[in-house]
Amino acid sequence: MKIAIVHDELMRRGGAEQVVLCFHKAFPEATIYTMAYQPEATYPEFKNCAIKISWYNKIISSEKLMKALFFPVGVLAMKQLDVTGYDVVLMSSTYCAKYVKISPQTIVINYCHTPFRLAWYPESYAEFLNAKGLKKIAYNFVIAMLKKIDFKAAQRTNYFITNAKEVGLRIKDKYQFKGEVPVIKPSAAIENFYVSKTIKDYFLVVCRLEYYKKVDLVIAAFNELGLPLIVVGKGSKEQELKAMAKSNITFKQGLSATELSTLYAECKGLVFPQEEDYGITPLEAAASGRPVIAFGKGGVWETMIPYKEDESRATALFFDEQTPESLISAINKFNTLNFDPIFIRKHAELFRSEVFINQIKKFVNSKVI
Among 276, 294, 335, 347, which has the highest number of CB atoms less than 10 A from its own CB? Predict the structure, then answer.
């Protein structure tokens, strides 16, 4: 079986990129095809993979520029990326992986993290919500075009897989897919994290600093509480968030794996304010034996055990509204609870990479043989 792996782009460190690394462990001889790749911006393990990149990589120097030129230049580059001649193409896709050039007889298996957010859920972006006049007209035109392009490309998929039941429903809705969409839950790199006896007096946020991640509400809450908070990440909202943060809030980025694992292991808890399709960082916190304070919608129901009456058998405390007031109430409650680090770590063990890799191998092989 000749197999290729396709991913949108390798310009960051996130859950989708961890999925691609697992794909490569499942099929180590496979070449990875992608729109853009910057080795220092993503996981170092990719340096050991065979990677083929579109010509778009030559004209962009940052994630910001990559996004700015994506329509129409990036779309065109991805459509011209030649992934023909394979028996199977295994995709990790949020947006453009499905645009590549593929042979008609190739079996296409698309692990869809969510339908293209900008095309189908533009309200997730502050830039769209705040646009007015001609800018709004331009956004609506681009979104209408992206919907057509994205829908057409999705029709080449033979089999969809996804990370959560809710995302499976979105796939069936937006792409009018008639088949089943099985859930194979992504893993976390459990082996990279550890439980520490030393717990320090800070809370932690680890995510991209984008509008839909809702880091602003965390900063507003901690501005009022005055408690120490460390925010790890970068993104388009970085300067805006730093400007609103008081002196009890520290920002970090570009950390090594060791530095990040130490921050996880020694934090009081991870704050997860966004609604995610899945979300890897709560599992990374759990692998460190640390509980999560999470907005109680979306993927956290797939990965966490919420506190009800017994915190020794829970991994997270959920809050109900994406407001500073709701989060403050949750933090005050959290500070009265004693979670069990060993129980939390054992729960994280259920999401080891080997489990996910074996499930992916089994699924792909079942569609070829």
Answer: 294
